[in-house]
């Protein structure tokens, strides 16, 4: 097929390819609808997303204590957030705009501001059908869950052999093993694993635990969220568990290790999930992991904007490192734009431009609508620059490159 000969056709082809590409969402907090209410969805969950709870306490009057808020019903919390963050203030922040984008993509009357009518519409939805609708509107081929064997409510579902869902793949979440070894030991001891301290026998038992869960869930990667001060190698507990438990299992089972690094957990515990903060992480820890374990694949995203350039340069040096996402506090248009530009300039399309991190099913629609627009705008600029050199891309090549940025390179990395 000949290359496209005029820039207007290139631009329209790029925009269409981004609009139509089926995206792979490689990190979410979704659950199968069969898992007893673990899957969050609907307007009250959208409005009480922890991003919005944090924004509420930026503006709420002092007599709204955390205790008063958390004692409210979900509907009361949602009504309060709607009033404080959407009516009393213009909804301009990314999380507030996201809630409105969801309603817009569903074809609901956003301008009406009629929350009761919106709530009634959601009450009429059936979650299994709604999930399919959301994936279709968001344009996803599948999404990867966060499956944590240290969360009792989740373990209960898998132990009861509750079915998964064809649109949802698994990822085994192992933070607790790394960042809370004493807590992890308690869980393992409760399941008759003979762990007691940091020693070979305990490491073997922890590996047995991971392999047992891997057999049950068939995860596509192991995942951990790590604090800014995570270092490797080292003689602290985190580095010791990484060295003696995680890496051997990853190597033996040929499972990539996904690390999301830079979260300061519980900066304000009263905000619940919304209380976590961010810190600049140590990219050299990732460098050491990648260079000292060339036979293990690492998927990495960092929470601080400050880390992004250094991480891109490292990814140019380590063929076993794949960067993904504009994680959490980076998942805002201004930073997604900057990170996507920087990544294409340094890594071409060998990254995964974003993930949704959706905790509420409906969020897939806003997170991906917003990301498509930004990635599309950046790609129009990059293809315009390419066109100016005399290079003429074909339609298939543009579609290939767009897909690579939104799941294709991830799948290639997993299988290369
Ligand atoms: O560790 C994680 O997976 C984080 O993404 C979450 O803990 C965080 O609350 C989140 O959902 C961010 O978007
Ligand atoms: Zn997450």
Q: Can you walk me through this structure?
A:
This protein is an alpha/beta fold and 416 residues long. It contains 18 helices and ten strands. The strands form three sheets. A five-stranded parallel sheet has the order 4-5-6-9-10. Helix 8 runs parallel beside helix 17 and helix 12 packs across helix 13. The chain is globular. Bound molecules: D-fructuronic acid (FIX) and zinc ion.
Give the secondary structure arrangement, pairings included.
Layout: H1 7-20, E1 23-25, H2 43-47, H3 50-59, H4 66-71, H5 74-87, H6 94-105, H7 115-123, H8 127-138, E2 140-144, H9 152-159, E3 168-169, E4 172-173, H10 175-179, H11 181-189, H12 200-217, E5 222-226, H13 237-253, E6 257-261, E7 263-264, E8 277-278, H14 283-292, E9 298-302, H15 308-317, E10 321-323, H16 333-347, H17 363-388, H18 395-415
Parallel strand pairs: 1-2, 2-3, 4-5, 5-6, 6-9, 9-10
Antiparallel strand pairs: 7-8
The protein binds D-fructuronic acid and zinc ion.
Zinc ion (ZN) is lined by residues 27, 29, 146, 357.
Counted beta strands:
10
SSE class: alpha/beta
Report how far the terminal alpha carbons are from each other. Answer: 27 Å
- Write out the distinct hetero groups bound to the structure: D-fructuronic acid, zinc ion
DSSP strand content: 5-15%
Oligomer: single chain
Helix content: 40-55%
Order of helices and strands: HEHHHHHHHEHEEHHHEHEEEHEHEHHH
Strand order of the largest sheet: 4-5-6-9-10
Q: Round the Cα radius of gyration to an integer and report it.
A: 22 Å
**Average pLDDT across residues?**
98
Task: Give start-end ranges of low-pLDDT stretches.
Answer: none
Please tell me what the overall shape is: globular
* Largest sheet composition: 5 strands, parallel
Total helical segments: 18
């Amino acid at each position: 097929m000949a290359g496209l000969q005029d820039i207007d056709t290139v631009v329209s082809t790029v925009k269409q390819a981004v609009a139509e590409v089926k995206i792979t969402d490689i990190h979410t907090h979704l659950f199968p609808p069969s898992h007893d209410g673990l899957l969050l969805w609907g307007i009250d969950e959208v409005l009480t997303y922890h991003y919005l709870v944090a924004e509420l306490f930026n503006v709420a009057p002092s007599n709204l204590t955390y205790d008063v808020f958390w004692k409210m019903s979900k509907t009361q919390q949602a009504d309060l957030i709607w009033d404080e963050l959407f009516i009393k203030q213009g909804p301009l922040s990314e999380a507030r705009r996201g809630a409105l984008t969801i309603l817009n993509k569903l074809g609901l009357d956003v301008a009406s501001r009629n929350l009761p009518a919106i709530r009634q519409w959601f009450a009429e939805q059936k979650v299994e059908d709604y999930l399919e609708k959301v994936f279709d509107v968001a344009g996803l081929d599948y999404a990867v869950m966060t499956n944590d064997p240290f969360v009792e409510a989740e373990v209960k579902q898998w132990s009861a052999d509750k079915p998964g869902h064809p649109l949802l793949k698994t990822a085994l979440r192992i933070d607790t093993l790394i960042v809370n070894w004493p807590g992890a030991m308690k869980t393992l001891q409760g399941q008759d694993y003979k762990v007691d301290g940091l020693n070979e026998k305990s490491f073997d038992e922890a590996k047995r635990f991971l392999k047992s869960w891997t057999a049950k869930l068939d995860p596509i990667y192991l995942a951990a969220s790590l604090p800014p001060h995570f270092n490797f190698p080292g003689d602290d507990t985190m580095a010791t568990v990484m060295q003696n438990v995680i890496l051997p299992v990853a190597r033996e089972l040929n499972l990539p290790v996904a690390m999301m690094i830079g979260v300061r957990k519980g900066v304000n515990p009263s905000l619940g999930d919304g209380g976590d903060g961010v810190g600049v992480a140590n990219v050299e820890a990732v460098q050491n992991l990648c260079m000292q374990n060339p036979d293990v694949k690492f998927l990495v995203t960092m929470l601080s904007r400050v880390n992004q350039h250094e991480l891109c340069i490292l990814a140019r040096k380590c063929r076993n490192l794949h960067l993904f996402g504009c994680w959490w506090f980076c998942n805002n248009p201004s930073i997604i734009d900057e990170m996507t530009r920087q990544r294409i300039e340094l890594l071409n399309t060998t990254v995964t431009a974003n993930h949704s991190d959706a905790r509420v099913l409906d969020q897939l629609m806003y997170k991906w609508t917003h990301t498509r627009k930004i990635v599309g705008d950046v790609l129009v600029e990059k293809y315009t620059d390419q066109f100016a050199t005399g290079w003429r891309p074909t339609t298939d090549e543009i579609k290939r490159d767009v897909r690579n940025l939104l799941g294709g390179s991830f799948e290639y990395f997993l299988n290369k």
